[in-house]
Write a structure and sequence with these properties.
23% helix; FAD/NAD(P)-binding domain; 22 strands
Length: 585
């Protein structure tokens, strides 16, 4: 093993949070920072321009290679876990920028009650009415503590949207159910495409309050506070699962990396696969990694920041023996607990007129906030504790994915002349209402190391123990009923909810890369891995950023909240830790 020259800070992972921590530290201190990214180097806009290929997207060329590393999954501790052999419920990114390069750019904030959810649910329902195995936790800070950092993240990315609650005053056209904002969005909403306008009209007729989905795709040319200039969106439809070929979608490579490349105290090393955090006597001393040539390297550092994806953060700590692994039987330990995902439902609407769905942008559409948070109009004897935003959007559909969507009964099979005729008849005439419901944490859902399967280096894979409960099944039925009513109000021929018969969590279809937990934050080392500033409770010079810190999952997309929490952590690091190294809580 080769020992390299020590640096002040080593960051593991070159995605949103890794590059954001590096930007804040190098901009506000003289500390030397090196970012290790196990994927390839940053891509140029021209690279993305050459990659607008739907077939290439379907082959997941921009995603992590699961032949090198995957996860195993089981529904309960009594079951045998098996590896996920093909992309399904989540699609992690790879290379500089990570999943932040191919994300869909939806950028809504979490509700204020999410940050004190355990307290909120006890106050609303009483402890005796809550599920026995519920493991939700308060975050250790409030929405008000985070609001200024939300605003910083929105400015950095140039989020387009319409405020619904501006300093406590409700604003028509925005989301009246959101927490109060200190500022209007940096950019106005996008020009809206046809299908979402049908959804908006129907929702208003039903008495709801549709609002433009906040998105980090620019509605106009924009210069952020760092002086990064990006053009407005062209509605080409190549957002989700693609990198933006003109830079209109906020990505780590076009917002943070241009700032970092000007810093003399910053360096970026791609193709460096970190395998362990090196530590001794309660202090991190650096990391070991395999370089592109297959040589093992030791990078000593005074501070280690883990900023990889949720699952990789948890796995790296488990492999390194940092912290106490969670035991679901005894409830002891914290590392690996509170694994959550999101509960998705999709409702096809057969409109019958061309919708021009090939045009669009990430997050281009309208949403309803009525049914997120504490959903109204539910059965009080079996309450649904959290709901979901419901939205209709046009992110851009390629001819392969969008072809073949036909109403039930119009063809006897999914092939042959009758199927082809129906597919041509309904092409570009099928919209979809979707939701991604909040997922509560339960004691029986967790992460640990698999005892059988390994990655390409022989290290144990991460094992996910995860399944739906009766609460998730009630969530899906409740939300599907509302979505069907909206579809009928649009005047569409309403299909069956795609996942209505699903009994168990499945890794076979996409439910978003919004996997959270495992390295959760909190106000006590007995209940969490990191403190509210993302500093490890037992190892003060080890910091862990990203969705792995979230103690449960809200229905809103997590990226904006991940960035806001990272801004807060970076400020604490620079203003407090650098001046006086040690535990902040």
């Amino acid at each position: 093993m080769e020992r390299l020259k020590p640096v002040d800070v080593v960051v593991v992972g070159g995605g949103w949070t890794g590059l954001l921590m590096a930007t804040e530290i190098t901009s506000r201190t003289s500390l030397s920072v090196v970012v290790l990214e196990r994927g390839g180097p940053a891509r140029d806009l021209s690279d993305y321009g050459d990659g607008m290929d739907e077939l290439d997207m379907l082959r997941y060329r921009i995603m992590q290679n699961i032949a090198d590393e995957t996860v195993t999954h089981r529904h309960s501790g009594k079951d045998r876990a098996v590896p996920m052999r093909q992309y399904g419920s989540f699609k992690p990114g790879t290379g500089v920028g990570g999943a932040g390069e191919h994300w869909g750019a939806i950028s809504n904030r979490y509700r204020p009650d999410q940050f004190r959810l355990a307290t909120h649910l006890r106050e609303k329902y009483g402890a005796a009415r809550l599920p026995e195995n519920l493991a939700v936790q308060d975050w250790g800070f409030t929405y008000d503590d985070l609001e200024a950092y939300y605003w910083r993240a929105e400015q950095m990315m140039g989020v387009s949207g319409k405020a619904g609650n501006l300093r406590g005053s409700l604003i028509e056209g925005g989301d009246p159910f959101e927490g109060p904002r200190s500022h209007e969005f940096p950019n106005p909403p996008h020009k809206m495409s046809y299908f979402p306008t049908l959804f908006r009209k129907a929702a208003q007729e039903l008495g709801y309050h549709p609002f433009p989905i906040p998105t980090a795709t620019l509605s106009q040319d924009y210069s952020n506070p760092d002086g990064i200039v990006r053009p407005g969106c062209l509605y080409c439809g190549h957002c989700s699962r693609y990198g933006c070929m003109i830079g209109a979608k906020a990505q780590p490579s076009n917002t943070l990396l241009p700032v970092l490349t000007r810093k003399k105290n910053f360096s970026l090393r791609p193709n460096c696969w970190v395998r362990r955090v090196v530590h001794r006597d309660g202090k991190a001393e650096g990391v070991t990694y395999m370089d592109a040539a297959g040589k093992e390297m030791l990078q000593p550092a005074d501070v280690v920041v883990l900023s990889s994806w949720t699952i990789n953060n948890a796995r790296l700590l488990l492999l390194s023996g940092v912290g106490d692994p969670y035991d679901p039987v005894t409830g002891r330990g914290t590392l690996g607990k509170n694994l959550t995902h999101q509960l998705t439902e999709e409702l096809p609407l057969y409109i019958g007129t061309p919708l021009n769905l090939f045009m669009g942008a990430g997050g281009l559409g309208y949403a309803l906030g009525e049914f997120a948070g504490d959903p109204p109009g539910q059965d009080p004897t079996a309450p649904i504790l959290r709901g979901s935003e419901i939205r209709a959007s046009t992110g851009g559909e390629g001819p392969i994915v969008s072809f073949g969507k036909i109403p039930q009964g119009e063809a006897n099979s999914a092939w042959g002349s009758a199927w082809k005729k129906a597919a041509l008849k309904w092409y570009d005439k099928v919209g979809q209402i979707t939701c991604e419901a909040a997922h509560l944490s339960y004691r029986q859902n967790y992460m640990d190391l698999d005892s059988t399967y390994t990655d390409k280096f022989g290290d144990p894979l991460l094992r996910l123990t995860l399944d739906w409960t009766g609460h998730e099944k009630r969530q899906r039925a409740y939300l599907a009923k509302i979505m069907i009513a909206l579809g009928k109000a649009i005047g569409a021929r309403v299909g069956a909810p795609i996942h209505e018969t699903e009994e168990h969590y499945s890794v076979t279809y996409s439910q978003g890369t919004h996997v959270q937990g495992g390295v959760i934050l909190g106000d006590s080392p007995e209940r969490s891995v990191v403190n509210p500033w993302l500093q490890h409770w037992r190892m003060p010079n080890l910091w862990i950023t990203g969705g792995s810190a979230f103690p449960q999952n809200e229905s809103a997309n997590p990226t904006l909240t991940i960035l806001a929490v990272t801004y807060r952590a970076a400020e604490a690091f620079v203003d407090r830790y650098v001046k006086k190294p040690g535990a902040l809580a």
